[in-house]
Amino acid sequence: MSVVVTGATGHLGRLIVEGLLEAGVAPDQVVAGGRRTERLADLAARGVRVVELDYTRPETLAAALAGVDTLMLVSGSEVGQRVAQHGAAIDAARAAGVRRVVYTSAPHADATELVLAPEHAATEELLAASGLVVTVLRNNWYTENYVPTLQQAAATGQVVASAGDGRVASASRADFAAGAVAVLTSAEHDGRTYELTGDVAWTHDELAAAVGEVLGRPVTYVRATPDEQRAGLLAAGLDEGTAGFLVALDQNIAAGTLADATDTLRTLIGRPTTPLLDGLRASWAASAS
To answer: What pTM did the predictor assign?
Structure first.
C-alpha cells in the first residue's frame, strides 16, 4: 500500500502520518504533503517522501499523487474554498490512477443543519461521482477545539456559550487519526461511510467542570443567549463572520447536531476514546509548551 496524506503539516494530517509509520507501513510507502515542507523535515529524515501539496496548484497535486494507491484527503481549513480545493484533489487522483480515497467529513454531512456541513456534503457528492473507491470518515468535534474555552476560563472563571443543554460527542485528534490509520491499512473499509465520535456525549455543564479540574479553579457555565454571545465575541475582538460562525455552531449544538455518540471509532481503534478531561488536560499542556 502506498498513501499520500494531505495537510500533513496540520495537526490531524501529521498524526495520521505518524500513525501509519507506527502501524508498520514502510516509510517509503508514505507521502506527506503540505504547503510548507520545511515543517516535515523530520519525517523526510525517517524515509517518508515529503512533497509540496497545494490544492490551488494542480502541478503539485499531480506530482504528489504519482504512483500512489490511496489518497488520504484531510479536509481543508479554508472555509468557502474547500469544495473547489477538494475537487481539484479528486480530479488529480483520478488522473494519476489512484484507486481509493479516504476523506474526513462532518457528522451526518448529508442530513444535518450543522454550519460546517455543506462543503463536506458537496465533497462527498464529488467523491460519489468520481468512480474511485471511497471511505468517508464523518468526524465529530475535536476536543482540542476547546483550547480557547480553557483560555477564556483561565482569565474569567467562566465558560460562556449559547449551547443550552446540547451535547457534544467529541474525541481527541489522536483518536480520529487512529481511526483513519485503521481504515487506511485495511481493505475491509472500502466503500463505507462511518460516523466517528467519542464514547460519551457531554454537556457544557460537564465541560465547565472538566475545565475547572484542568485549571484547578471553579469554572461556571454561563448560559448566554445567541445575541449576548455574539456581543461578547465582538467585544473580545472577533470579526462579524467568526462571531456569527461560533454562535451558529452553538445553536447547532443546542439542537443536538453533535450529540450522536456511536461506538464505531472505539471499535476501529480497539480502545476507548479519550475522555473529555484527559483530552482537555493534554490540549492545555500542549498549548502551554
So the answer is: 0.96
